[in-house]
Design a protein that fits this description.
The chain is an all-alpha fold. The chain has helices spanning about 10-25, 45-60, 65-75, 85-95, 100-115, 125-165, 185-209. Helix 2 (about 45-60) packs antiparallel against helix 3, helix 3 (about 65-75) packs antiparallel against helix 4 and helix 4 runs antiparallel to helix 5. It is rod-shaped, with a radius of gyration of 48 Å. The termini are far apart.
């Protein structure tokens, strides 16, 4: 007998899918990593769902919630025999046509990687996140360096302005202060003049005599 809820059309559909799979296996149309099993209980679907939606949108060129929901449902309810990547690819071919094969191949690789992770996340996703954090850190450091450089430039400009003001303080606009006169300059000049005058007078007197 049939399983509860199963009808003849469904059985025919499953048989048709199995026939397609066998034909593809014969022609070696499936990648080797499809032979490896995935335990979905070890995979974080919270992480996989966004990737599935993004990758399907990228491949189709537009958003299609029906395809995304169908794929997620297949992963969430793998059935008694477990998740079969070959069956998943055949089922998605009706929606994604030739793009179903590369999508399922990528998906299966990520699922295999995720089940090996303690947190159920593919290694590639973790590496990408690390790279993003590293880039953000480097960008933040560059911003800090630029701010530090600008601060130093500003402080140097202010220092130079203070030095210039200090050097030019109290002087006339001409830039030169009043010329200093020695303390005994006046006396020396007067003495010299008096001596010269006396000499001339004496010389004149002698000549007249």
């Amino acid at each position: 007998g049939f399983f509860r809820g199963t009808n003849t059309d469904q059985v025919k559909h499953v048989n048709a899918e199995q026939k397609i799979i066998k034909n593809m296996e014969k022609n070696k149309r499936f990648p080797d990593h499809y032979t490896k099993k995935v335990d979905m209980s070890k995979v974080s679907m919270d992480v996989m769902k966004p990737w599935i939606a993004k990758r399907i949108t990228e491949m189709l060129g537009f958003e299609d919630d029906i395809v995304v929901d169908f794929c997620v449902a297949q992963l969430a309810e793998p059935g008694d025999k477990g998740l079969d990547p070959k069956m998943l690819q055949v089922n998605l071919t009706g929606f994604m046509e030739r793009k179903a094969a590369p999508f399922c191949s990528e998906l299966w690789q990520h699922l295999l990687s995720a089940q090996e992770s303690p947190v159920g996340v593919p290694r590639e996703f973790i590496d990408q996140k690390k790279e993003e954090l590293q880039k953000k850190k480097e960008e933040a450091e560059k911003v800090q360096e630029e701010l530090k450089r600008r601060k130093q430039d500003l402080e140097e400009a202010e220092r130079q302005a203070r030095e210039a003001k200090k050097e030019g303080g109290g002087q006339p606009e001409g830039g030169q202060g009043p010329r200093e006169t020695p303390a005994d300059g006046g006396t020396t000049a007067a003495t010299t003049a008096a001596t010269s005058g006396a000499t001339i007078a004496v010389t004149g007197g002698m000549t007249g005599a």
